[in-house]
Design a protein that fits this description.
Blueprint (H helix, E strand, L loop, with lengths): L5 E8 L5 H12 L16 H6 L6 E9 L2 E9 L7 H9 L3 E7 L6 H12 L3 E7 L8 H12 L7 E2 L8 H11 L12 E10 L3 E10 L1 E3 L3 E4 L4 E4 L2 E5 L3 E4 L1 E3 L3 E5 L13 E4 L18 E7 L5 H14 L4 E7 L3 E8 L2 H14 L4 E3 L3 E2 L1 E5 L4 E4 L11 E16 L3 H10 L3 E7 L4 E9 H4 L3 H8 L5 E11 L2 E8 L2 E2 L5 E4 H18 L7 E7 L2 E8 L15 H21 L6 H4 L8
Parallel strand pairs: 1-3, 1-4, 4-5, 5-6
Antiparallel strand pairs: 2-3, 7-8, 7-16, 8-15, 9-14, 10-11, 10-16, 12-13, 12-15, 17-19, 17-20, 17-21, 18-19, 22-23, 22-24, 24-26, 24-27, 25-26, 28-29, 28-30, 28-31, 31-32
């Protein structure tokens, strides 16, 4: 394929604005997929994606298009829309020369639309605004186009009006892509430089690397060097996604495809690595990617306690396919050996846990999530902790800082008052208000990340009747009056239930956690005391009464001392059982900290 006829682009948008459906129509109109093989959200290959109706993994496909008698090759990447998967979007955009920014004609510009547009501009990409769903009764495409221009500063020259569902406007969109997005730069005769932008694992072929060739040509049978790991491999298979894996002999500068080279170890490939010719290597590697910064942490433990190695292998396999989550070994007195895992957000955590159980067959016990805190010790050293269990004693801490986010909330005008009240309750600092249109407002707040972690998004949807959206990014750390709250069960601290929180919330939150624990933990043969403590001070207590057996049932008459003797014996037995008995805490109880406020 002539390099000037190659177009590499991503489809980016807010959640549910029609990215995957546009990708379906592009493949259908170009004939890349037969009518028999066509189905909705074709590129969403995971069961989870199809069930939830969201894109989790960026998916690549190569389409051959005929435009006015000239052949073009489109390499498109369909990306996720949720804020928790922004790392997938960043990686996809770094492998492209342009982007389709999709906006719903009914909903207009949303929070994630703004965030994605800024990322595309930072990557110096050519952006084509696409107004989708113009066939719906409530659509106002012209107003949406004006909003795109005023909010994002994108010109009206290349705005495309389409209906991905019916296919209206798709042929014009294809022509605009060919005319507007520039061809890839790069020299097919230069030393080979190919960027690994994603990877997956196959039980039979090993690691499959998804590559964008920037310079040079990569050939089947060629000996290549992975510059980051300094390891040599021989390419056994090359191919493109059409959308199924289709083999080919070469990939030249500007093309996107996959590479199989008998890479057996999961640790030998890093997303962002550079592939080059082992015999005539490039002078320097490509810039690659900044590593993702995890902001939410929780612990995964095997539910049986004996499947630790199986859990390790499952996490290793998932981390290859998802470079934005990390894991490291962790021990807990209550739960045994497990792993501390880092995620970009709560949805990301939920998806990884479900993938572990579905794809890898591993049942896990998951502790409540927490964010990363920064600590300055009395000796002047600064460190980060991601768990209340890792927090040193308070007399060694000079200053405790919490992560701060800048949050953009887009809402109908009537939801502004409720959102401001909600943000104030969570120690938010108001920054500014911008009107996107006559009835839509964008509020910007600075908020502590741990205050929005659990139920902020759900409450936002509730107070705005489903129309509110939000996007956020971490701006830094700020000193706050934070304390560590321990949960004691029969006088023993359960480290998996400990939390770091603001002192003003401690009493209310501690009492709420204990009430939920009392409801979730089954009754035992002895009395169980739940206590919330800050340091040596108990701030709340709840008691779970013991199960009681009627030991006097057989005493149908006679002296009352017989009954009293049996009751005293039962009391002594319960007391002894309490000292040696262990309390069974179910998985659901560990998630009580996540429950929304009543």
């Amino acid at each position: 394929m002539n390099q000037k006829n190659i177009r590499n682009f991503s489809i980016i948008a807010h959640i549910d604005h029609g990215k995957s459906t546009i990708a379906d129509r592009l493949m259908q109109v170009s004939g890349a997929v037969s009518a028999r093989d066509m189905k909705e959200q074709l590129l969403d290959s995971m069961d989870l994606e199809r069930e939830r109706g969201i894109t989790i993994k960026a998916a690549s496909v190569t389409i051959d298009v005929q435009i006015d008698g000239e052949q073009y090759m489109f390499n498109l990447i369909d990306t996720p829309g949720h804020v928790d998967f922004h790392y997938e979007v960043d990686r996809a955009l770094a492998a492209c020369d342009g982007a389709l920014l999709v906006v719903d004609a009914c909903q207009g510009v949303q929070a994630q639309t703004v965030a994605n547009a800024y990322v595309a501009v930072e990557n110096d990409l050519e952006i084509i605004p696409v107004i989708n769903k113009i066939d719906l009764p409530g659509a106002h495409p012209e107003d949406t186009a004006i909003e795109v221009e005023s909010v994002l500063g994108l010109g009206m020259d290349h705005v495309q009006f389409v209906s991905a569902k019916s296919g209206q406007g798709i042929p014009d969109l294809i022509r605009t892509i060919a005319r507007t997005i520039p061809p890839p730069e790069g020299d097919p005769a230069a030393p080979l430089q190919a960027l690994v932008f994603d990877s997956t694992y196959d039980d039979y072929r090993g690691v499959i690397c998804y590559v964008r060739v920037v310079n040079g040509t990569i050939r089947k049978g060629e000996k290549v060097l992975l510059m980051g790991r300094n390891r040599h491999y021989v390419i056994s298979e090359l191919g493109k996604f059409r959308p199924k894996m289709t083999r080919c002999e070469t990939l030249q500068a500007g093309e996107v495809g996959y590479m199989v080279a008998a890479i057996k170890s999961l640790k030998d490939v890093t997303v962002g690595d550079t592939v080059t010719d082992a015999l005539a290597p490039a002078a320097a590697p490509l810039p690659g990617y900044e590593p993702a910064k995890q902001m939410v942490y929780c612990d995964f433990y095997p539910s049986g306690g004996e499947d630790f190695e199986e859990l390790r292998e499952a996490l290793a396999r998932l981390s290859l396919n998802d470079a934005s989550f990390t894991y490291e070994p962790q021990t807990s007195e209550a739960l045994g050996f497990g792993f501390r895992c880092g995620f970009l957000g709560l949805l990301h955590m939920d998806i990884v846990q479900e993938r572990l159980e579905r794809e890898c067959g591993v049942d896990v016990v998951q502790t409540a999530p927490s964010v990363t805190y920064e600590i300055e010790l009395t000796d002047g050293t600064v460190t980060e902790v991601s768990s209340a269990g890792d927090l040193p004693s308070m007399d060694r801490i000079s200053e405790l800082r919490e992560p701060i986010i800048e949050c953009q909330i887009i809402t109908p005008e009537e939801g502004v008052g409720a959102i401001m009240k909600m943000a104030d309750q969570r120690r938010g600092i108001y920054k500014r208000t911008e009107y996107l249109g006559p009835k839509r407002v964008m509020l910007t707040y600075e908020l502590p990340f741990n205050e929005i972690l659990y139920d902020f998004y759900d409450k936002l949807k509730s107070v705005t009747r489903g129309y509110g959206t939000m996007d956020y990014h971490v701006t830094g750390y700020r000193q706050a009056d934070l304390v560590k709250m321990d949960i004691l069960v029969n006088g023993k601290a359960v480290d998996a239930l400990s939390v770091i929180l603001h002192r003003s919330n401690a009493d209310r939150r501690g009492r709420r956690i204990l009430l939920r624990l009392r409801q979730e933990v089954p009754r035992h043969m002895f009395e169980v005391a739940f206590q919330a403590a800050i340091g040596g001070r108990i701030i709340a207590r709840e008691t779970l009464k013991a199960l009681r057996k009627n030991v006097t049932a057989k005493c149908y008459g006679g002296d009352v001392t017989r009954k009293r003797k049996l009751l005293e014996k039962q009391k002594a037995g319960k007391k002894r059982m309490k000292t040696i008995g262990s309390v069974d805490i179910p998985q659901k109880a560990f998630m009580t900290v996540l429950e929304p406020e009543d």
